[in-house]
Design a protein that fits this description.
Elements (H helix, E strand, L loop, with lengths): L5 E5 L7 H9 L3 E3 L2 E5 L5 E10 L6 E9 L8 E9 L2 H14 L12 E2 L6 H14 L8 E2 L9 H13 L9 E2 L4 H9 L4 H4 L6 H16 L3 E3 L12 H17 L21
Parallel strand pairs: 6-9, 7-8
Antiparallel strand pairs: 1-3, 2-10, 3-4, 4-5, 5-6
Length: about 280
C-alpha cells in the first residue's frame, strides 16, 4: 500500500465562527477553510489537492495531480505536483489508486472523493474496475469521475487551453499563477503545441492539455479551498427567485467539489520544486 506524503494542518489563524460572522458583515460569500495540507517530503503547503484524468486518444491517456498553493496571493496559485502518461484504461485507473493514497486520500474530507474526467466515455470499464475493488475489499472507495467545469460546451477544449495560457501569463505582479514543477511531459506538450491548438485541437488529440486545462479551469471556478458562507438575511426583504437559484447552484457546485453529497518569477525552493514554465 502506498504511503501518503500529505499531512493535515489546522490553521490557527482562523477562528471558527469568527470568519463567517465577518462574512455576514461584509457580504462575502466565501471564507477560507480552517485546515490546509503539507507535503512531508518538501514542506510545501497546499490549500487543496485535486486529480484529473483524460482517456487515451491520438496520444496516451494522462493523469494530473495539481495543488492550490498556500500563499498570500488573492488569486489561486497552482502547482502541478505529479504527471502520469499511460496508453491503456486499466493502467490509468490503477495509477489513480496509487496517486490518491500518496496525496492524502482519507487524510482530508475533500481529497480525491472524485477525479475530474469524462464519466461516460469508458464507463463500462470504470464500473468493472470499481466492482473488482469492492469485491476484494468492500471498504475501498472506487474511482469516481466528474466532468470538468464547462465540459458540456462545444468549445470546452478551447476554454480549458485558454485557462492554462491565462495562468501562465505573468500578472500585474510579474508572476504566473501556474507552475509545472518537474513535470517535463506537460511542459513539452504546452511548449510544442501549435499556436492555434485551442481552436483546432481536441480532447482526443491532446489528452495531456485536456487533463490539465480541465482541472485548472474547474478549480478556478469552484474554489474548493473556500467554505460557503453566504450571509443570512437579517431583515425582511422581497423574495428574489433568481438570486435564490444562483445561490443554490453555487452551493451545489461547491458541495460537489468538497465531497458533500445530498444536501513573473516565483521564488524557487532550494530543491527546485517550483520551476517557472516559460
Amino acid at each position: 500500500m502506498t504511503e501518503t506524503i500529505i499531512e493535515v494542518i489546522k490553521d490557527k489563524s482562523i477562528i471558527t465562527g469568527a470568519d463567517h460572522h465577518i462574512c455576514q458583515i461584509t457580504g462575502e460569500r466565501y471564507t477560507r477553510k480552517p485546515t490546509y495540507y503539507r507535503n512531508t517530503e518538501t514542506g510545501t503547503e497546499y490549500y487543496h489537492i485535486s486529480g484529473s484524468i483524460c482517456w487515451p486518444g491520438q496520444n496516451p491517456g494522462f493523469i494530473v495531480i495539481i495543488a492550490v498553493l498556500k500563499t498570500t496571493e488573492n488569486s489561486p496559485v497552482f502547482q502541478v505536483i505529479e504527471e502520469v502518461e499511460i496508453d491503456n484504461i486499466n493502467g490509468l485507473l490503477s495509477a489513480c489508486l496509487q496517486l490518491r493514497e500518496k496525496y492524502g486520500h482519507g487524510q482530508g474530507s475533500d481529497l480525491f472523493n472524485f477525479w475530474y474526467g469524462e464519466n461516460d466515455r469508458f464507463d463500462a470499464i470504470v464500473n468493472d474496475f470499481n466492482h473488482y475493488l469492492t469485491a476484494r475489499d468492500d471498504k475501498t472507495q472506487g474511482i469516481y469521475l466528474v466532468p470538468p467545469y464547462d465540459h458540456q460546451k462545444p468549445n470546452a477544449f478551447e476554454i480549458w487551453v485558454n485557462s492554462i495560457r491565462g495562468c501562465l501569463k505573468r500578472d500585474a505582479s510579474n508572476k504566473p499563477t501556474l507552475y509545472m514543477g518537474n513535470c517535463t511531459r506537460l511542459r513539452s506538450y504546452i511548449q510544442t503545441s501549435p499556436f492555434d491548438v485551442a481552436v483546432k485541437g481536441s480532447i482526443e488529440d491532446y489528452p495531456a492539455l485536456a487533463a490539465l486545462g480541465g482541472v485548472v479551469h474547474s478549480l478556478m471556478m469552484l474554489r474548493p479551498c473556500l467554505e460557503f458562507a453566504r450571509p443570512e438575511r437579517v431583515t425582511p426583504t422581497m423574495h428574489d427567485p433568481v438570486a435564490d437559484l444562483q445561490e443554490a447552484q453555487e452551493r451545489a457546485l461547491w458541495e460537489m467539489e468538497n465531497g458533500i453529497y445530498g444536501s513573473g518569477e516565483f521564488d524557487e525552493y532550494d530543491d527546485g520544486e517550483l520551476v517557472s514554465t516559460l
